[in-house]
Amino acid sequence: MITISLRNYSLLKHLHHGTTKETMAWQLTATTLVGLQTVPGLVILHGTVVKKKWAVNSAFMALYAFAAVLICWVLWAHHMSFGAKLCSIIGRPNVALTPKFLLGQSINGKFPMADFVCFQFAFAAITVVLLAGSLLGRMNFYAWMFFVPLWLNFCYTTGAFTIWGHGCLQPYIIDYAGGFVVLLSSGVAGFTAAYWVGPTHSHDRQNFPPNNIIHTLGGAGFLWLDWTGFNGGSPFAANEIAALAIVNTHLCVATSLLVWVSMDMIVYKKSSVIGAVQGMITGLVCITPGAGLVSPWAAVLMGTVSGFLPWYTMMVLHRKSAFFQSVDDTLGVFHTHAVSGTLGGFLSGFFAKPALLRLMYDSDNYGPGLFYSLESGKLKDGLRQIEYQLAGVVFITVWNAVMTSIICIFISRIVNLRMDEDALEIGDDAAHGEEAYALWGDGEKM
């Protein structure tokens, strides 16, 4: 039997699994759902939330990344994230393509390793595409082609191995489904890369309307509903924790969306569709690190905070801060992912329920959440868990900021990170020779 440690991978020893067929069917379904978040979800979302002249480029960045990450993932990155330890923060590179490996059983013996490889690939792919939201409308596509494999290799694999695999922080940090590894890292890396790439064209920065809000909602819908697989598939079993995670996810998202819309109506006297999408995203991000480990009432509270605080940092603090104004973060990924990811990591350490932690893990290192430590008289243990959560935030933030900077500087020595001004003024036609809305008969003769 081929074994590999699963997410937070002392887990599932005490978990009530379904049958092998039930678990295999659910994992295949969850893998498909997570893939659909990127293709077509983020392809549509990124392609329609930008100005018309950037629709093709933005969608194509997502599609390219999805394909490139898969090839890199099976050739070396999967083992760097979940394989044998090379050092305390990285695994040993190896190919994940041999039939012996792919057809072997995962550690809980309920589904083949091939599905685990695909499931984790989908997480890696969406991380890269999420950070691309900070770079839309000006990054040189050739630079993006270099950036994707380099960032996967030097940033994503390190976070995954350190917190999910056999790394030094894995036995301590609560990260149920990627609040640190996927969401916080994409927010920090996207903002850092946006600094190095530079701003969009001056006219675009002043006027950047979505080209199709209805389709933006469609892409957002894929992201929200398919998060069922993102959080529901992370216990690697069709069980109680998976079911609770799904309920908590949708409760948190709905609450966050409503809070964001309410803030828009109170302050700006109008409800914004794009604001609702942002509130949806912050709710998804916030609940993810603790989705199956908190009670539903806690999920609602997390949604309330994730709807308000990122709204404040994006709509108020961002506009007053010279630091934020100096970086052109196209879709505000720093606020929706870095701020919300930090919130989720902290609140998961605060609300993690001991009984659910025992179902999920076979280690006493995790928790209890600070809230429950007050009730049980184990305040010291609760405070220690909060310290671990904050240590995870610091590690992911510093590592991604430093390594993303190094990657961007390296690429800039090979090819320009940013398109030239003439191309920026034209958009898709200059970058790809194609336009999103080339209507029949527009300037053409039969």
TrEMBL record:
Membrane topology: Multi-pass membrane protein
SUPFAM superfamilies: Ammonium transporter
A GO MF term: ammonium channel activity
Pfam families: Ammonium_transp
Superkingdom of origin organism: Eukaryota
Transmembrane residue ranges: 54-76, 116-136, 142-164, 176-197, 241-261, 273-291, 297-318, 330-352, 388-411
One GO cellular component, as annotated: plasma membrane
Keywords assigned by UniProt, alphabetized: Membrane, Transmembrane, Transmembrane helix
Subcellular location: Membrane
Location of the Ammonium transporter AmtB-like domain: 25-437
InterPro entries named among the record's database cross-references: Ammonium/urea_transptr, Ammonium_transpt, NH4_transpt_AmtB-like_dom, RhesusRHD
Family from the record: Belongs to the ammonia transporter channel (TC 1.A.11.2) family.
PANTHER family according to UniProt: AMMONIUM TRANSPORTER 2 MEMBER 3, AMMONIUM TRANSPORTER MEP2
Protein name: Ammonium transporter AmtB-like domain-containing protein
